[in-house]
């Protein structure tokens, strides 16, 4: 059995009865965020340093706004702000001069309702009646109730148990609950003893190479189109009080569409690996892609840095890991060093071999092939330790199948099939 966590979306059945209480909690979370944001700014101005998460909690635990929420809920607000500042600081350190620090959340009747998180001490679950008792903070309690009693409904195939966290999320129209549960999943035997290598990229989101010579490309054009559409000027407006309501909704839709793409891609890759009887996948580990050989920050240029920081390679790899584990498939994060420069046919390495986007030409052996597939084969070899094969560029590796994401079906299919359906 594999022990992991799953997040289930739940509709609030008695929304009308609990929406005011959830609004109060959401507004309080925004106020606490703003108090902490001001504290960080003061500390930055005085010392040139950003206070740590532990410092924030210690300094603000006696603040009035901290007592509006359950203590663990307030802690989570401060944790999220600290995480946001750390993410901004790393981007600036890595050369992203366009990155902005986390801002204040808008005040007044129209300010966004922040996500509120309850951890285990603030949750009581009635699984028989599908109800959750969510604790309020001291300042929001009154003589009628010390908690919010939310009735929920999930998909019929979902069993809610072992809840670790409950997140109340404002989706732009109403509140919804995200239930984070600990689950045990039966792990089957591996589909086979074959292996596969995955090269992650930007133009092609990934390329995969199998033992039998098959290779596949998965373009990221859908993600680019979505980002262009949902971040147009009329959507991405931001005034003195932060992004507009329309811009917030656009960003939420973009986030949901990207998340669906990554889930669908991870599921499809696992299905393809099962068909190819793969028991082990090597995937490029890009955790150090923002560093050069000496460990210093690497500058990819203004446009390159922006693309890189929006490239959620770790998110996809994590999804692939847990979906593959359910079927007994092991995922190895493997160094990508020199895999894009090395010829998978003869093993020689030259910077000039990658002559243009998508094309790899080896001046030593004359092999011409897709550059991303070449990288996938080299990553694949890191776990098989097999030597280069001279005739590889004459086979299926030179003609990879391109799979496109069909937004209507929510699934991937060969490009010729998606073209016919559209």
Automatic annotation (TrEMBL):
What is any Pfam family matched here?
Answer: OrfB_IS605
- Residues of the Cas12f1-like TNB domain: 313-379
Of which family is this protein a member?
Answer: In the C-terminal section; belongs to the transposase 35 family.
Give the species: Halorubrum ejinorense
Name the keywords, alphabetized. DNA recombination, DNA-binding, Endonuclease, Hydrolase, Nuclease, Transposition
Instruction: Report residue spans for region: Disordered.
Output: 90-114
The Gene Ontology terms for molecular function here are: DNA binding; endonuclease activity
Q: Which residues form the Probable transposase IS891/IS1136/IS1341 domain?
A: 178-290
Its name, as the record gives it, is RNA-guided endonuclease TnpB family protein
Q: Which stretches are annotated as coiled coil?
A: none
Q: Name one GO biological process term.
A: DNA recombination
Q: What is the lineage of its organism?
A: Archaea, Methanobacteriati, Methanobacteriota, Stenosarchaea group, Halobacteria
């Amino acid at each position: 059995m594999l022990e992991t966590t799953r997040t289930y979306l739940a509709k609030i059945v008695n929304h009308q009865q609990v929406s005011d209480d959830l609004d109060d909690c959401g507004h309080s979370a925004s106020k606490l965020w703003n108090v902490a944001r001001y504290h960080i700014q003061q500390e930055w101005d005085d010392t040139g340093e950003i206070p740590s998460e532990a410092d924030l909690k210690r300094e603000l635990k006696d603040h009035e706004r901290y007592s509006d929420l359950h203590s663990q809920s307030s802690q989570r607000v401060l944790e999220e702000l600290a995480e946001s500042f750390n993410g901004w600081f790393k981007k600036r350190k890595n050369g992203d001069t366009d990155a902005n620090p986390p801002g204040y959340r808008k005040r007044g009747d129209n300010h966004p309702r922040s996500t509120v998180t309850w951890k285990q001490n603030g949750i009581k679950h009635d699984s028989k009646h599908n109800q959750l008792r969510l604790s309020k903070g001291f300042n929001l309690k009154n003589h009628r109730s010390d908690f919010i009693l939310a009735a929920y409904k999930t998909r019929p195939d979902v069993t809610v148990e072992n809840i670790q966290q409950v997140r109340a999320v404002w989706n732009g129209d109403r509140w919804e609950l995200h239930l984070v549960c600990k689950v045990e999943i039966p792990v089957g035997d591996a589909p086979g003893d074959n292996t596969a290598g995955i090269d992650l990229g930007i133009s092609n989101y990934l390329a995969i190479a199998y033992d039998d010579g098959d290779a596949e490309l998965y373009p990221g054009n859908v993600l680019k189109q979505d980002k262009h559409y949902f971040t147009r000027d009329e959507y991405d407006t931001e005034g003195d009080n932060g992004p507009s309501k329309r811009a917030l909704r656009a960003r939420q839709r973009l986030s949901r569409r990207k998340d669906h793409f990554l889930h669908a891609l991870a599921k499809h890759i696992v299905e393809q690996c099962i068909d190819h009887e793969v028991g082990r996948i090597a995937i490029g580990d890009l955790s150090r892609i923002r560093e050069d050989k000496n460990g210093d920050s690497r500058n990819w240029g203004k446009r390159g840095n922006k693309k890189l920081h929006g490239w959620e390679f770790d998110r996809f790899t994590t999804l692939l890991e847990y979906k593959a584990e359910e079927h007994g498939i092991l995922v190895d994060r493997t160094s990508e060093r020199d895999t894009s420069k090395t010829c998978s046919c003869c093993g020689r390495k030259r910077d000039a071999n990658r002559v243009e986007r998508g094309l790899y030409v080896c001046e030593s052996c004359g092999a011409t092939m897709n550059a991303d597939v070449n990288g996938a084969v080299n990553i694949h070899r890191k776990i098989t330790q097999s030597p280069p094969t001279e005739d590889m560029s004459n086979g299926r590796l030179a003609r990879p199948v391109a799979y496109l994401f069909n937004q209507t079906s929510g699934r991937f299919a060969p490009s010729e099939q998606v073209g016919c359906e559209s």
